[in-house]
Design brief:
The protein has helices at 2-5, 9-31, 40-55, 65-84, 86-106, 118-138, 146-157, 161-179, 182-202, 221-230, 260-270; strands spanning 208-215, 235-240, 247-256, 275-280. The chain contains eleven helices and four strands. The chain is of the alpha+beta class and 293 residues long.
């Protein structure tokens, strides 16, 4: 189901809506009742909101200023996404942001935490939130905020989304630690680290793989099909089967885990009998582009 969703437009939309619902559920059911702080841009806006209210007395009745600040802060990130990631990504970004915001207003926040143990709450919330955001990003979407910038850096610099989030949130929570309740901040930091770890586990565009394709076809049809479908380079050499003694061509491609199914379809369409070997988690050095859908 998920492999098809990664490559089918209408299934991607369903997964994006489901992921947005899961993120909204996690925030309202686990995070908000425990008085913890979100990470990323929303967390930064919450800090600014609190400082404006406590230090300058700037606040509005029945209006959360953090939401207004978050909306304003997303404008330059939306422009960045429009210019560097394309209209399709912006559409998915708007879909996720609107769906998550609407669902957060519908899902009721419990009057008291549903779990007594804060560490268990952090663990469950981190897994669910990391799963939600990771699915969004794997399907080419984003919940907005700093996730948009992290995906841009992943595409341009090869920095994983989870690592970028951890670095930013360390700085954010050190600031919170100096300003607010330390217990809530410590558990908030644990939640954010767990979220970032699970984002990297789910976000398949962070996982690099190496594919070896053995085929008896000697023309350029398969290499050209792979390059057109994945925008990846192909290296090949001539080999010989030790058991059969047949001449074979061995093609080598480095790509993200997200692109494996695309490669398989491209190869199978030309040579259904080709043997394909996939090794995940390989390290690449040099000219390897991190594609973002």
């Amino acid at each position: 189901m998920l492999n098809k969703a990664y490559h089918t437009s209408w299934l991607q939309v369903l997964v994006l809506v489901f992921s947005s619902a899961l993120a909204a559920f996690t925030t309202n059911i686990f995070i908000a009742p425990n008085g913890m702080y979100n990470g990323g841009l929303l967390g930064l806006c919450q800090v600014i909101r609190t400082l404006l209210a406590t230090k300058l007395g700037i606040q509005f009745a029945n209006i959360d200023l953090a939401g207004i600040l978050y909306l304003i802060a997303n404008i330059p990130l939306l422009i960045l996404a429009w210019r560097s990631m394309g209209k399709i990504f912006v559409f998915k970004l708007v879909l996720c942001t609107v769906a998550q915001s609407l669902l957060m207003t519908v899902i009721p926040v419990p009057a008291k935490p549903i779990l007594d143990d804060m560490l268990t709450t952090c663990l469950i919330a981190g897994i669910l939130n990391g799963l939600a955001v990771g699915l969004m990003m794997t399907c080419g979407g984003s919940s907005g905020g700093m996730d948009t910038l992290w995906m841009f850096l992943s595409k341009q610099k090869g920095i994983t989304v989870g690592k970028s989030g951890i670095i930013f949130n360390i700085c954010l929570y050190l600031l919170c630690l100096a300003l607010f309740d330390r217990t809530a901040v410590i558990y908030s930091a644990i939640f954010s680290v767990l979220t970032s770890v699970f984002i990297d586990k789910v976000h398949q565009q962070n996982i690099t793989a190496q594919a070896l394709i053995m085929t008896k076809m000697k023309g350029h049809e398969i290499p050209e099909a792979i390059m057109n479908a994945t925008e990846r380079g192909v290296t090949f050499w001539e080999g010989k089967g030790a058991y059969t003694g047949d001449d074979v061509r061995v093609l080598c491609v480095c790509l993200s885990k997200y692109e494996i199914e695309t490669l398989q379809h491209a190869v199978r369409a030309i040579d259904p009998n080709a043997f394909i070997s996939i090794q995940e988690g390989v390290h690449t050095i040099g000219n390897f582009k991190h594609h973002v859908t």
